């Protein structure tokens, strides 16, 4: 007898704000059970409440952990899996940065960016594999950045960490393929996204950090994460801007460097609310409220032609493919609800991604 398909479960690190929160909201709106991981319990509870408000009936669980601490991260994943069931998708979206000339960035700040942005992704991937390999199924999504194609001035720690994420993901993807594993690994390369990242990054420039135009809305990145998670792995360049950037680097590294150098990195980009900045979260969680968007909403693009074309192509391909055969599912054995997790009820499938007002706070 074929049993009903179990609800799918996604776990997202950095899930209390920015791309992580936006992705969680989108997955919940499509009927997924959502697990959130970040450092601050209050912000996690707030994020859970927001998702429940945006998608009534959503099933959300959370557990606090610092992604740079592998043992704490593994414990958080076990608590979420005990509440929601087997993990189908794991998204590594946690990251931070420091803004300033390399000589002005203290060694401990540089090291911390590497520990969270790169090693946090490594830790998350290792934990995810421990849940997925025994079942030989699942997808991991590592949120990378367009800076991997050519590093940008004033963000040496972040550029280096994201470049390491890409190389690590490429190596592991090939390892999984050679081993015949059905676990998939996707890497997403977004452009500058209007998240609270720029309010939370420490700045040594005398003013807060800012994105390099063109800037895109958080929902564009969330849609990219969802596409990457449900598309079978591989590398995904999120927008036409990122595609063009990567092609220029392939044609001429010198030309790419010249174009990057012409960007006005050392000036302050106007914010919707100048008072929103300067809430660093490198060594401790920010005390601001939980939000998805940063302070550049008036400059952010809300859609991507590349994503629209991908959506149309996927819809066409799905319409032309025969329906897949159902396979018997394994019974899910859950332990009692673990302390430190908060959950609700399952989300109805097909709800629209919410449109909360842009906020002046960050993650």
UniProtKB/TrEMBL annotation:
Query: Where is the chain membrane-spanning?
Result: none
**Looking at the UniProt record for this protein, which Gene Ontology cellular component terms does it annotate, in alphabetical order?**
membrane
The Ketoreductase domain is annotated at 8-188
| Oxidoreductase is among the record's keywords | yes
UniProt keyword annotations, A-Z:
Oxidoreductase
What InterPro entries does the annotation carry?
KR_dom, NAD(P)-bd_dom_sf, Sc_DH/Rdtase_CS, SDR_fam
Xref: Gene3D superfamilies: NAD(P)-binding Rossmann-like Domain
* Source organism, top-level taxon: Bacteria
- What start-end ranges are recorded for coiled-coil regions in this protein? none
Cite the residue spans of the region called Disordered. Answer: 327-363
MF annotations from Gene Ontology: oxidoreductase activity
Please verify whether the record's keywords include Oxidoreductase. Answer: yes
Tell me which PANTHER family the record gives.
Answer: DEHYDROGENASE/REDUCTASE SDR FAMILY MEMBER 7B (PTHR44196), DEHYDROGENASE_REDUCTASE SDR FAMILY MEMBER 7B (PTHR44196:SF1)
| Protein family | Belongs to the short-chain dehydrogenases/reductases (SDR) family.
**NCBIfam families attached here?**
PRK07109.1
Q: What is this protein called?
A: SDR family NAD(P)-dependent oxidoreductase
Lineage of source species:
Bacteria, Pseudomonadati, Pseudomonadota, Alphaproteobacteria, Acetobacterales
């Amino acid at each position: 007898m074929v049993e009903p398909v179990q609800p799918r479960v996604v776990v997202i690190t950095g899930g209390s704000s920015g791309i992580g929160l936006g992705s969680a909201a989108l997955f919940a709106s499509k009927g997924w059970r959502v697990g959130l991981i970040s450092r601050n319990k209050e912000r996690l509870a707030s994020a859970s409440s927001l998702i429940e408000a945006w998608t009534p009936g959503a099933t959300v669980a959370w557990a606090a952990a610092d992604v740079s601490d592998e043992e704490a991260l593994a414990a958080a994943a076990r608590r979420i899996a005990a509440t929601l069931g087997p993990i189908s998708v794991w998204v590594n979206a946690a990251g931070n940065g420091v803004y300033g000339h390399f000589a002005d960035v203290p060694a401990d700040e540089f090291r911390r960016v590497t520990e969270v942005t790169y090693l946090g992704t490594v830790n998350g991937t290792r934990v995810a594999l421990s849940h997925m390999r025994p079942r030989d199924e699942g997808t991991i999504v590592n949120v990378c950045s367009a800076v991997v194609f050519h590093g940008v001035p004033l963000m040496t720690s972040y550029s280096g960490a994201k470049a390491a994420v890409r190389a690590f993901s490429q190596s592991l993807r090939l390892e999984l393929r050679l081993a015949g594993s059905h676990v998939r690994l996707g890497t997403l390369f977004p452009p500058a996204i209007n998240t609270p990242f720029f309010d939370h990054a420490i700045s040594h420039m005398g003013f807060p950090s800012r994105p390099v135009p063109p800037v895109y809305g958080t929902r564009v990145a969330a849609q990219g994460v969802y596409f990457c998670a449900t598309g079978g792995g591989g590398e995904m360049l999120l927008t036409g801007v990122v595609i063009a950037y990567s092609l220029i680097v392939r044609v001429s590294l010198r030309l790419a460097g010249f174009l990057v150098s012409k960007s006005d990195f050392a000036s302050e980009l106007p914010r919707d609310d100048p008072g929103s900045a300067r809430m660093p979260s490198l060594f401790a969680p920010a005390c601001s409220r939980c939000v998805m968007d940063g302070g550049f909403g008036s400059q952010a693009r809300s859609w991507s032609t590349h994503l629209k074309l991908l959506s149309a192509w996927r819809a066409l391909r799905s319409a032309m493919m025969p329906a897949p055969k159902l396979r018997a599912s394994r019974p899910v054995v859950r332990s009692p609800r673990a302390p430190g997790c908060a959950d609700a009820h399952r989300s109805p499938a097909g709800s629209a991604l919410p449109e909360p007002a842009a906020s002046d706070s960050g993650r």
